[in-house]
Design brief:
Elements: E1 4-9, E2 12-17, H1 29-46, H2 51-58, H3 62-71, H4 76-85, H5 104-110
Antiparallel strand pairs: 1-2
């Protein structure tokens, strides 16, 4: 099974298998990482910054930047440094910002 979903149980998240044919909109963690890397590379190129320059501006090693663009793998600290160097640090403000609702009643009561 390619895709996975999250299920919350007693305050902790755990992965549960999800049928890919039923939930094609779900992405795997690897797909999300590669999508972030692709968008970062696009931003870098839009600003006409080389990988070498980005390494210098961000303080992230050239090898880490090359690996990130190729595989999507990078530490959170390095990703944040790259975001600052590219002027995209505000993009992190929306990460985990959406409130999760347990019931429709919570949605209705929030507006009151």
């Amino acid at each position: 099974m390619k895709n996975r979903g999250l299920e919350e149980k007693e305050g902790a998240c755990r992965f549960i298998p999800v049928l890919a044919s039923s939930f094609d909109f779900l992405k795997s963690p690897d797909e999300v990482n590669k999508g972030i890397a692709k968008r970062m590379r696009q931003r870098r190129k839009e600003k006409k910054i080389t990988q070498v320059q980005l390494a210098k501006y961000s303080g992230v090693s050239l090898g880490s930047i090359k690996r990130f663009e190729r595989t999507g793998e990078i530490s959170l600290t390095s990703l944040v440094k790259i975001a600052f160097a590219l002027g995209c640090e505000d993009d992190f403000e929306s990460l985990f910002a959406r409130k999760g609702y347990a019931s429709i009643e919570e949605v209705i009561n929030e507006g009151k």
